[in-house]
Amino acid sequence: MAKIERIELRMVDLRPKVERTDAIQSFVSQETPLVTITDSDGARGTGYSYTIGTGGSSVMRLLADHLAPRLLGRDADQIEAIWHELEFATHATTIGAITSIALAAIDTALWDLRARKQGLPLWKLAGGAKDRCPLYTTEGGWLHISTEALVEDALDAKSKGFTGSKVKIGKSHGSEDFARLSAVRKAVGDGYEIMTDANQGFTVDEAIRRAERLRELDLGWLEEPLPADDIDGHVRLNRASSTPVAVGESLYSIRHFREYMQKGACSIVQVDAGRIGGITPWLKVAHAAEAFDMPVCPHFLMELHVSLTCAVPNGKYVEYIPQLDDITSSRLKIEQGMALAPSTPGLGIDWDWDAISSRSIGEFEREIRQGG
Fold first, then answer.
1. Most CB within 10 Å of its CB: which of 42, 161, 212, 276?
2. Of 168, 234, 256, 305, which is the active-site residue?
């Protein structure tokens, strides 16, 4: 039984390659906590999570001061036990984003370590439902982008075999959103999915009104139409709209997802491993969604989520937003618009440690080891 002997903590700040705006914010920076765990056999696993520009320093302090030291001497294969112990150790701050983001970096590292030691890619270790999934792109659909550019990007994605494009909505008047989406639909035709994302920008009545206006465009889904804690509002909207309602980006507990599904407050589950606390709770949400006959279309983190989406039978889409290119030597493999699950053991992410070292923020670097 190999015990955990060393934990290395780093954080890098990744700037988006394109401007990213939505109805309530701009995505100006991805603070990326990295956790590398080494066991007594010398095996290593690396996990990560992210913020969109704030809170990274708090995540790193939580990792360094409270969570990582508790890993020393533990059997790295007891992932479930470790996850619950760490969650309980922070019960005064759960359930919230800072704690879940910190847990995610550790949990993902433990799964990477287990998969590497067993010589299996994550998608097989976690279930092995399929080796590829359809891909849709968000990178050309941000709110500030002109209608002409939206159309051009969607046509380009369609020509490459992508399944669909996501367009951000939340313009000052619903007619603007309708005009933009109508132009995209006219250009791509009926066989191409158009997803929309409001980023929690509407009230219930406004969301119902806009969903009705957009109904004729046959949209793939309406994502995060309301504040994430307004479950009853989502119930009202989901009953009133024929467009599927998608949630999950801003939910941080399996119990939050349970309540959404039980109450009929959503139709599509977008659980994010980087925000819910890692792979361990991600899989639980995905399997619960299967019991409700709901597809899983995870938010962001395509380099990790391609494996998880392929692991479960109800994994439907992977979201194309490249963000790790500056610190990895691997790339998401795409064939005819399908994202291919990695074939190498572990997460399938090849970290560029020289690039990480050059970008690592020194004040957050920490090595925690037994006896030191």
1. 276
2. 168
